Hints:
The complex is a heterodimer of chains A (542) and B (214).
Chain A: H1 10-17, H2 30-49, E1 50-58, E2 70-73, E3 76-86, E4 93-100, E5 112-116, E6 119-121, E7 124-126, H3 130-133, E8 136-140, E9 150-152, E10 166-173, E11 184-187, E12 190-200, E13 207-214, E14 225-229, E15 234-238, E16 241-245, H4 249-254, E17 257-261, E18 275-280, H5 283-286, E19 295-301, E20 313-316, E21 319-327, E22 330-332, E23 337-346, H6 352-355, H7 361-364, H8 366-378, E24 381-389, E25 394-401, E26 418-419, H9 425-442, H10 445-499, H11 504-532, H12 536-539
Parallel strand pairs in A: 1-9, 2-8, 10-18, 11-17, 14-18, 19-26, 20-25
Antiparallel strand pairs in A: 1-4, 2-3, 3-4, 5-8, 6-7, 10-13, 11-12, 12-13, 14-17, 15-16, 19-23, 20-21, 21-23, 22-23, 24-25
Chain B: E1 13-15, E2 22-24, H1 48-68, E3 72-76, E4 79-83, H2 85-94, H3 98-127, H4 134-147, H5 153-164, E5 171-175, H6 177-195, H7 199-203, H8 210-213
Antiparallel strand pairs in B: 1-2, 3-4, 3-5
Amino acid sequence: MARQPAEIDIDALQEVLHERKRKSLPFVWIVPLVAAVIGGWLVVQGIMEKGPTITILFKTAEGLEAGKTKVKYKSVDVGEVKHISVAKDLLGVVATVELVKNAEPFLVEDTQFWVVRPRIAGGQVSGLGTLFSGSYIGGDIGKSTTKRRDFVGLEVPPIITAGMAGRHFVLHAETLGSLQVGSPVFFRQEEVGSIVAHEINKDGQGVTFRIFVNAPYDQYVNANSRFWNASGVDVTMDANGIRVDTESLVSILIGGVAFGTFPGIGPQSSAEENQEFTLFNSRMDAMKRPDALTVPMVVIFEQSLRGLSVGAPVEFRGVGIGEVKSINMEYDLVQSKPSFPVGLAIYPMRLLSLMTSPLNEKLNAEEVRRARWSALVARGLRAQLKTGNLLTGQVLVELDFFPNAPKAEIDWASTPPRFPTVPSTLEEVQESLVSIVKKIDKMPLDQIGTDLHQTLQSLNGTLHTVNAMVKRVDTEITPAARQTLEESRQMFQTTQRALAPDAPLQHDVRDALRELSKASQSVRLLGDYLERHPESILRGKK
Amino acid sequence: MRGTAVTAAQLGLCGCHTCNLVTKVEPGQRDAVCPRCGYHLHMRKPDSIARAWAFLIAGYILYVPANVMPIMHTSSLFGAQSDTIMSGVIYLWHSGSWHLALIVFIASILVPSAKLLAMTFLLISVQRRSVWDPMQRTKMYRIIEQVGRWSMLDIFVVAILVALVQLQSLATIRAGLGAVAFGAVVVLTMFAAMEFDPKLIWDSQGGRRGSSTG
C-alpha cells in the first residue's frame, strides 16, 4: 500500500469538486454588511437620541429609583434617572438624570425640578397617579439664559410654573394663621391665585407671604388694595352683634387670602410686581379707615363693665371713632370704692367733620388739639357705657353731648388724658326708677284707701235715692200721661172728621162761597149800573 | 502505520451532504453529483470558512445592540419601563429569584457570547491549520450546535408576553429593537455553526487521529 502524502490540499480538492469558482467576494458577505449597517444605524440613533446628562440634588431619594424614575415636563417623559448616590456632604442625594435629546432648553439656571409624590394638601389632591406608577420628577423650564447642569431639587412642587401669566405680591402679617403654600387667593370670592411661599421674617417679627395672582385678575390689585385672611369661618361677637364671615367652602377648609379695593378712593393704577401689602386679620380690619393718628384716652367708670371687651368700639352717635384698648381695675383705698379705668384709642381723623377742620399741621399741634377737646368737653361731651347689643349684652363706649351733665374737663395731667364720663342711660333709668319707688313708698296709701271707702259708701246711698225716684215716676206719672195721649187722639179724630171732603162743614163752606160769589157779582153789576147811571142813586132805577 | 488513518479524501471518496452516500470521485472531476440523490458532491462545504466568518461577524455586530437596547417595553398603570436583557437579569436577581436569573443569564448572555467566542476560536484555529486537540474542538463544535437554539428562550418569552399582554391602557408590552437584534444574533450564530465544516478541523491533522494519539 503506497504511502499517501500526509498533507492534502483541501483547497485543490474544493476547486476540483466545486463547480462555481468565485472570483469576487462571496455573496454571503452581504449578511455582515447588512448587520453592520443596521448596527451602525442603531448606534448612531442611540447617540443621536442620547440627551444631556444633569444632576439634581434632593434631600431624600424617597420614591426615586435608578433606571426607572422618569423626568416629566407637562406629563411628557423627558428623561430618566440613571443613577442615585448620596451627596458628598452626606446631606442629600444626587440623582443623575439623562434627558432626551432635545432637552437643551432645560439646561438653564432657573429650571426647577421636584419629586412628584401623592400629595393631599392645600385643598388639592395631586400626584394620585404616582400611587401606582411610583414617583417621578417633575420639571419646569426656566427663562434664564445661563447654562447649568447641576440643579437643586425642590421639596414641594412649585405653585407657579413657567408660562403662567400674573404677578407676585408680598404680604406681611403677624401670624401665619391657617394659611399654607397653595392656599387660594380670592377676589370677590373668585379664586384668582394662590400663596406661593411663606416664611417668618428674619427678625422673628411677623410672617411674610408671597402670593401669585393670575392674569387677568392681577390688574385688580392696586396700591389701594387691602388683603385680609379669609380663613375658615370668622365668627366675631362684639358690640355690633354676631358676625359670621366666610369666603368659600374651600377657604373654610384650607384657609385663604382675599383682597378687595378700599372703597371711596378713585381708580388706581395696577400694583407693581412684588409690591408689598399688609395682610389684615379680617375683612373688617382691612376695610377700616387708615388710622394713622391715634389719641390715647382713659375713661373711668364706676359701674359694672360686664359686656365690655377690648376691641369694643368707641362711637359718637353711632359712628365709630375709636376702640377700647385696655380694661383695668383700681381700688381707691381712701374712698373704698372700685373704679375701672378703660383705655381708649381715639382716631381723630375720623372726627374730621366733627372738628370741622381739614387735616393739617394745626390738628397735630398738641395745644390746638387739647384746646379743641376741652372745648368739646365744656359743651358737654362725655363718655358713657352703652348697650350695643341687647341680645349678646355687649357694650360699647359712647361719646355724646350731655348739656345737663355736671361740669367736668379732661385731665390732661394724667397719662393718658382722663376723659370725663357720665353714668349710662340704663343706670340713670335704674336710679330714677328707684326714686320713683321711694316716692311711692312715702305716699299715705292707707288713708287714701279709707277715704276712698267712705266716698264709695255715700255714692251708694245716692244711687239708692235715684232708684226710688225712678220708681215713683213709673207709678204716678205714667197713667196720667197715657190718659192725655188718649184725649189727644180723640181730638185728632174729630178734627180729621171735620176736614174730610164729604164733611158737612166742607159743604157749607162751599155753599157759602158760592153765595158770596153771587153776591159779589150783584155788587159788580150794581157798580156798572151806577157808573153809567150815577143819577140813579137819586132818581132810582128806571 | 501507527497513529495514522487513511482519510476518505485521500482515497478519492466523497460523502454526500444530503444522503450521506459515499461516492468515488475522480480527481479533476467537476460538477460531480450524488448518484443516489442527485445533490452536488463536495469534499468539504463550499466556502465554509468565509460564510461562517460572514455570519459570525454579522452576529458580533448585532450582539452590541442586542445587549444595549431594550428588548421589551412594558407600559402599565404603574408606569412605563424598558428592559434590556441584563436589566432583566439584575431585576430577577434582586427580587430574589436567583435561579431564574441564573437561567436567563446562562441562556441569554453566557451562551450567545460563548458561542460567538467559540466559533471565532474554531475558525481561527482552522485557518491557522492548528493541530491542537482536534477532539476537543470537535466536541466544542457539537456543543455549539446543540446549545445554540436555547438562546431563543428570551425571544420566545418576549414574543409570548407581547402577544398576551395587550390590555390597552392597563398594560401593554412591546418588543424592543434589542429583541430583534438578539434574535438575529442567535440565528446568525446558528447559521455560522451550520456553515462551518467540522471536517476542516481534522484536515490539518493529515490523517493522524489527533496529536495525542499521533
